[in-house]
């Protein structure tokens, strides 16, 4: 079940959604070397969202985005726009890291 952040006006599912959308774009352009589609694990604290990509028993390192960045990316997601270049680069880097982790297993 997702968590709705009333003061920010979005849910944890939408955070996972914009990450998944960026991963879909990366898949279309570059493909993945692992089987299946990564799980997007979203956690948070008072200042940041912490995101980890997982597949086939392997994980990327966790990356963090502050609330303002996440709020902006959720707005882009709702408007059916791609992730910003800066955030896409972070997500793509962690997808590549996940590929390397899977290759080591």
Word description of this protein:
- The structure is a single chain.
- A hairpin with a 2-residue loop joins strand 4 (48-55) and strand 5.
- The protein is globular.
- With 105 residues, the protein is α+β, with helices and mostly antiparallel strands.
- 22% of the residues are buried.
- The protein has helices at 12-30, 67-78, 85-104; strands at residues 4-5, 10-11, 39-44, 48-55, 58-59, 63-66.
- It is built from three helices and six strands, in the order E-E-H-E-E-E-E-H-H.
- It is 49% helix and 23% strand.
- The model has no long low-confidence stretch (mean pLDDT 95).
- The strands form two sheets. Strands 3, 4, 5 and 6 form a four-stranded antiparallel β-sheet that branches. A two-stranded antiparallel sheet has the order 1-2.
**What distance separates the N and C termini?**
30 Å
Radius of gyration: 13 Å
Mean pLDDT: 95
Shape: globular
Number of strands: 6
Order of helices and strands: EEHEEEEHH
Oligomer: single chain
Q: Return the structural class.
A: alpha+beta
Structure annotation, total helices: 3
Question: Topology, please?
Answer:
Blueprint: E1 4-5, E2 10-11, H1 12-30, E3 39-44, E4 48-55, E5 58-59, E6 63-66, H2 67-78, H3 85-104
Antiparallel strand pairs: 1-2, 3-4, 4-5, 4-6
Helix pairs in contact: 1-2, 1-3
């Amino acid at each position: 079940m997702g968590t709705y952040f009333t003061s920010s006006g979005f849910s944890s599912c939408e955070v996972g959604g914009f990450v998944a959308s960026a991963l879909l774009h990366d898949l279309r352009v570059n493909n993945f070397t692992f089987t299946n589609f990564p799980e997007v694990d979203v956690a948070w604290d008072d200042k940041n969202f912490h995101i980890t990509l997982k597949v086939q028993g392997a994980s990327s390192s966790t990356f963090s985005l502050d609330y303002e960045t996440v709020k902006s990316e959720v707005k882009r997601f709702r408007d059916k726009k791609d992730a910003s270049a800066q955030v896409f680069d972070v997500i793509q880097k962690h997808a590549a890291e996940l590929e390397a982790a899977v290759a080591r297993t």
